[in-house]
Amino acid sequence: MFYLPLYHRLHNAKCLVVGGGTTAARKINWLLRAEADIVVVSPAVKPAVAALADSGRIRWQQASFDESAIAPDLTLVISATNQSEINREVYAVARKQNIPVNCVDEPELCTFIFPAIVDRDPIVVAVSSQASAPTLARMVRGWIEARLPPGLGHLADLGQRLRSRVRAKFDDVEARKAFWERLFDSPAAETALNGDLDGAERAAEQMLDDAQVPTGSVSLVGAGPGDPELITLKALRLIQQADVILYDKLSNPALLDYARRDAETIYVGKQGPKPGTPTPRPDNRSHQQHAINDLIIEHASAGKHVVRLKGGDPFIYGRGGEELESAMAANLDVTVVPGITAALGAASYAGIPLTYRNLSQSVRFVTGHRVENTINQDWPELGRADQTLVIYMGLVGLSELLAQLVAHGCEPQRPAALVENATLPEQRIVLGTISNLAEKARAAGIDGPSVAIVGDVVGMMPTDR
Ligand SMILES: C[S@@+](CC[C@H](N)C(=O)[O-])C[C@H]1O[C@@H](n2cnc3c(N)ncnc32)[C@H](O)[C@@H]1O
Fold first, then answer.
1. Ligand 1 centroid to residue 413 C-alpha, Å
2. Is the CATH number of domain 14-114 3.40.50.720?
3. Angle at alpha carbon of residue 143, lines to 142 and 148, rounded to 5°
4. What tens digit of pLDDT does each residue of 147-170 get?
5. How many other β-carbons are positioned within 10 Å of the β-carbon of residue 195?
6. Could you tell me if 389 and 382 are in contact, meaning their C-beta atoms sit under 8 angstroms apart?
7. What is the model's pLDDT at position 281?
8. Right CATH for 216-340 from 3.40.1010.10, 1.25.10.10, 3.50.50.60, 3.40.50.300
9. Predicted TM-score of the model (pTM)
10. Which of 36, 129, 221, 325 could form an SS bridge with 15, CB 3.0 to 4.6 Å?
11. Residue 314 to residues 248, 257, 320, 394, 408: CA-CA distances in angstroms?
């Protein structure tokens, strides 16, 4: 390692930028973020640089570079011209005066280099390939950036607000460190990340008052329809932080690889009915749901961060509402993180736009799940020609359901598709019409999680899917 990453204090420090083009503008912007006092020397500058000069944020000397521009009061010199002879001269003059110098894209003319920067002020991450592979460094920066929540800076601000109170509360350095670790992994931290610093401070105060009792939390997290890459960044972060993860049959187990090694993962799937098998008694399923609610409460009350990972979106046919209610009734902190619901995943991966000008102005999600062998729906409303219907859990009663649509005036030739295992590599699509889709699905042996999409928009599906 030839370069040691150091953070240079540039607040009010005089810095010289030679050149006024696009590259110079980028460097000027970084220097401005560090609140440097910037002088630009260049015969001409891009409008963005001129605007900064006009607004007084930088000083622009409209002249060619001359060695008198470099004086001992400079903290840094950057040469961002595309003329190598000027860069070499800037380098030589700066070196003679021992002023750190960077000639952009000429590593041999640099005493320091710029890293790729992730700015979550005051948290700043610098990534460098030590001038060997800048594109790779920028890619690494992108990966890190995706992992760091945009509100990370608020967390540091919360720490700043509490610093003196934490110091007063804990004499012991280890106890202080343990408190900070607990705070940054607590619901108070989540509140800060969401931008509510006052709320976070109140919650943190409570933790300080009651420093011995760890506070648990519950997150109802949408795992998306199947493809693990369809999860949100927030969901990913909560999975990474969780002590306990309760997951169901539809959440992709690959997502559990992101969990901490010591996290407890508990399968709480409720097997749905397969075609041709009797529907489980509803009270059996609600018994299972009660058991899940109790598990969530038990772990969170013991101070654990519980993630309840649910296929698709927690609030779409996911009983997330009941879990939210029961956890809130137990006075627990609950966060709900939306996920991509099966209808959206299936439609996108099949190439079926759910709404389309002149074809469908609205979309309706319904469940075909049979309760006590009846399907309770408002059939004339469901059969409207100007909307798209997406049927969840419709596999068991599909033929009955589609027959009801026809019986209530729906055009039997209206296009319909069944998408099984949407967004996963094993995704299958059966195309047909209202009158023949159920038979075609049976013939194809479809028995995985599936949604039926009914409406003229199905006709827009590209034929190579
Ligand atoms: C209990 S519901 C859960 C829905 C979930 N909360 C959501 O937002 O997608 C289960 C039903 O969702 C649908 N489903 C879930 N994942 C699916 C997938 N990958 N492909 C097709 N349908 C899916 C099926 O209709 C399945 O029977």
1. 26
2. yes
3. 95
4. 898 899 999 999 999 999 999 999
5. 11
6. yes
7. 43
8. 3.40.1010.10
9. 0.73
10. 36
11. 11, 21, 5, 19, 32
